[in-house]
Amino acid sequence: MLDGAAAAPAAEIDAARFRSVLGRFATGVVAITAVEPGTGRPAGLVANSFTSVSLAPPLVAFCVAHTSTTWPLLRGSGRLCVNILSEPQLEVCRRLAVRGGDKFAGIDWTESPGGAPLIDGALAWIECTVEQEHVAGDHVIVVARVHDLDGRHDADPLLFYRGGYGRLA
User: Which part of the chain is the Flavin reductase like domain (predicted)?
Assistant: First the structure.
């Protein structure tokens, strides 16, 4: 509130219109991965809400829907790996976006220094641990501390724009 002016009541925003308008902001796509505690199996989800937060300390953030069945597995794993996906990795994105099943079937990966799945072909990886979680509407904002990172490939990023996937032209 500026100069004591009363805040205007929030207008009712239609969810479809909200999605359509914000979909005009192009974002990259990341796969957030970890090894499932107790099973040793890789687990992962995709997000297009990823950003750097702070240089000192090094922090990143991403958003996860409350309905995610994968996030509880990742949260309990210790180390996470944020894989920045490249344009040819649309199939990786699609596999990790589904519910249930063996999401990693057919996805080649190695271990990050802390043991999280580092997906082959990713442009870069960022290994981190959960620092904070903030409830925000139908999502949780996860702030994570970076422990290690590296760029791997020079290629175009996988982009999400207007409800679909694409590449730089």
Answer: 22-167
Cβ–Cβ < 8 Å for 162, 23: yes
What predicted TM-score, i.e. pTM, was given to this entire model? 0.87
- List the structure tokens of 25: 């902001």
Cα separation, 46 vs 2, whole angstroms = 39
Q: pLDDT (tens digit, 9 = 90+) per residue, 46-97?
A: 999 999 999 999 999 999 999 999 999 999 898 999 999 999 999 999 999 9
Pick the CATH number of 27-160 from 3.40.50.720, 2.30.110.10, 3.40.630.30, 3.40.50.970: 2.30.110.10
Identify whether the C-beta of residue 74 lies closer than 8 Å to the C-beta of residue 82.
no
Look at residue 125 and give its three-state secondary structure. strand
The answer to whether 167 touches 158, Cβ cutoff 8 Å, is yes
